[in-house]
Amino acid sequence: MEYQGRTALITGASAGIGVAYAEEFARRGSNLILVARRADLLEKLASKIAAYSTVEVTLIPMDLSTLDAGQNLVDKVSALGLDVDFLINNAGFGTNARIEDEDRATVQQEIVLNVATLVDLTAAFIKPMIERNSGAVVNIASTASYQPVPGMAVYAATKAFVRSFTAAVWGEVSDTNVRVLAVSPGATKTEFFDIAGAKPAGRLVPVENVIKTTFKALDAKNSKPAVIDGGSNRLMASISRILPTSVVTKVAAGLFLPKRE
Ligand SMILES: NC(=O)c1ccc[n+]([C@@H]2O[C@H](COP(=O)([O-])OP(=O)(O)OC[C@H]3O[C@@H](n4cnc5c(N)ncnc54)[C@H](OP(=O)(O)O)[C@@H]3O)[C@@H](O)[C@H]2O)c1
Known about the structure:
CATH topology: Rossmann fold
Bound molecules: NADP nicotinamide-adenine-dinucleotide phosphate
CATH architecture: 3-Layer(aba) Sandwich
Oligomer: single chain
């Protein structure tokens, strides 16, 4: 994979895993289009990157959790005359509540951001990649995609969608040089659990682990549709595939299902 002089669009680049993707693409010489709501954090990151890299950094502060957000972002990128070689659909959030206690508006934003916007951006930006016969789409799923998660029912379902959708699109472009990859981090040290109001199950790993796993897969000779970060997470996902759904769902409930009020 050639990174130098190409352009990576990263959603959710104001915090956590997205910041680490931005820094790694910059190190590899890719120009950046950084998207998230918090403009001040995007500006801070752009200044940090400018201290060690000469890549061009374009900031697009916007909310991606509305139904027209994906198309609006595509229009903004097109108006700037920029081509996207690498699309990193990373923006996302989770909520931790019993389904009857979930806030309806928040859950709708969660579904639109984690699913609808990711689909819109993939569809729009993969077309020119196919025409150029190069590029990559990286969609951030989660180990939560490998089993239903009572207490995070909506979040886990959005991530199962991301993994299934990404594998299908991988199958659609397998006759080209375009890479399509779903990355499933396990519990990772970011703002994610605070925002979800959830307690992480197990040790939090540094964001750099997710970045290493991603680039190892992108740079591998053979294209794979999905990758899981961390050996123990890979083991748990394999076990989840073998055990009955009733069993793995009860185990997940023990980790994330809040007590009834
Ligand atoms: N951390 C984990 O344990 C873990 C595990 C598995 C999967 N993941 C996935 O990894 C991805 C990155 O999460 P993270 O762990 O880095 O969490 P994070 O630290 O909370 O970062 C989330 C990013 O998404 C952006 N975002 C949230 N809502 C947005 C909106 N409405 N519009 C635009 N951008 C929005 C945030 O920026 P603004 O708030 O500035 O908009 C932030 O940059 C997510 O898809 C998450 O589901 C995380």
